[in-house]
Design goal:
This is Flagellar hook-basal body complex protein FliE. The protein is mainly α. It is about 75% helix and about 0% strand. The two termini are about 25 Å apart.
Length: about 110
Amino acid sequence: MQIGANSLLQEMKSLSGEIPTGSITPQITQQVRSTSGSDFGELLSQAVTSVGELQANSGELSSRLDMGDTRVTLSDTVIAREKASVAFEATVQVRNKLVEAYKEIMSMPV
């Protein structure tokens, strides 16, 4: 299945109106909005850093819950783990698409 860049961009724009504003943290939303002048490598680096922070936060909450910290609830820990998991899976999918695109470009005749 081939997906063109223009059709994908149009679909993303149409879907962006369906996302509730409270579901994305303001910091991440601000990062995405302010990347118009950034290069792709910098944007990718920020995304990987963000995933790392989510995983670190998840690990910290899990450790605190295991140690018996009463300020940390099980639901907060599970939600943090799921956020980290989803972010990691999305990063892996982006990486896979980049590798696929690179292989396709490298196999093109010159």
